[in-house]
Amino acid sequence: MPSFDIVSEVDKQEVRNAVDQVNKEISTRFDFKGSDARVEQTDLQLTVFADDDFKLEQILDILRTKLTKRTIDVRCLDKGQIEKISGNKIKQLVTVKTGLDTELAKKIVRILKDSKLKAQASIQGETVRVTGAKKDVLQEAIQYVKKSVTDFPLQFQNFRD
Question: For the chain, which residues score pLDDT lower than 50?
Answer without folding.
Answer: none
